[in-house]
Amino acid sequence: MLFGAIESGGTKFVCGIGNENGEILERVSFPTTTPDETMGQVIEFFKNKQMDAMGVGSFGPVDPNKDSPTYGYITSTPKTKWRNFNFIGELKKHFDMPIGFDTDVNAAALGETEWGAAKGLDSCVYMTVGTGVGGGAIVEGKMLHGMLHPEMGHILIKRHPEDHFTGNCPYHNDCLEGMAAGPAIEKRWGKKGIELQEVDKVWEIEAYYLAQVVVNLVYTISPKRIILGGGVMKQKQLFPMIRKNVKELLNGYVETKEILVDIDNYIVSPGLGDNAGLCGAIALAKRAYQG
Ligand code: ADP
Ligand code: ZN
């Protein structure tokens, strides 16, 4: 089986061909410019390729509801050129096959349950902490949508007592994304995260914020595993700090063995590493094919 996979991000599109085992056989990437230009490159890449289905994990907000007239659209994105873009409609004009569509993070969560860190589990959350913060969830084996789809990156958080940064979310200022995404770190400290590796306070504050989303997920979705990916999570020292803060914040209220004895295997890095997004799109294609 061969699947076409698209991971569409705000800065670049990654396209690839993968198989039913989540192996990537071919991959290219294009900068995200205008729908005309970028989609032109995407269509050119997949044209004449042998594929049984396609999958698209996209930056959002998107409309993943199959019964909606705007299913398959990128909807109210701040990237104005892509606003109300009929992504799946455009692909369908060129490729007559099943096409799966979801948020980039729901796709990554699905890929991680198929082949990665949540393999064998019917539930997990995948969060990315990069240019933005976002999360996708698998609940009872299915990607979670609900009214729209989760927007976990924008939850409200308690401020660290030593943090006076105003926050940089254009909608909420000091929501999680506004305080903890890569650009927030850079704005608060005047340097990129990667250059701040040795500055302990940076990661102490970062872990304090990320632990809060983990705790809120434990209380709401109760996922069986939480996977933290994205550029900022390359700072591996964050993991033990987040786990410690999570235990402190829970304060004994949730007494599962996952939290009490095995938290190292509860809050983890992506098993698929930097391929989580593209493998997620392959997993979406596989699901679309299976119907
Ligand atoms: P995107 O979210 O655009 O898909 P990334 O997940 O790579 O891309 O996130 C990019 C953000 O992560 C940038 O703000 C960058 O400064 C930050 N980042 C990337 N690598 C590191 C690193 N090793 N340490 C800390 N921050 C990093
Ligand atoms: Zn926000």
TrEMBL record:
Coiled coil spans: none
EC number(s) recorded for this UniProt protein: 2.7.1.4
Metal-binding as UniProt keyword: yes
Cofactor list: Mg(2+)
Catalysed reaction equations from the record: D-fructose + ATP = D-fructose 6-phosphate + ADP + H(+)
Entry keyword set: Magnesium, Metal-binding, Zinc
Organism domain of life: Bacteria
PROSITE patterns: ROK
InterPro entries per the UniProt record, alphabetical: ATPase_NBD, Carb_Metab_Reg_Kinase/Isom, ROK, ROK_cs
Enzyme class at the top of the EC tree: transferase
Family, per entry: Belongs to the ROK (NagC/XylR) family.
PANTHER family, A to Z: FRUCTOKINASE, TRANSCRIPTIONAL REPRESSOR MPRA
This protein's name: fructokinase
Native species: Scopulibacillus cellulosilyticus
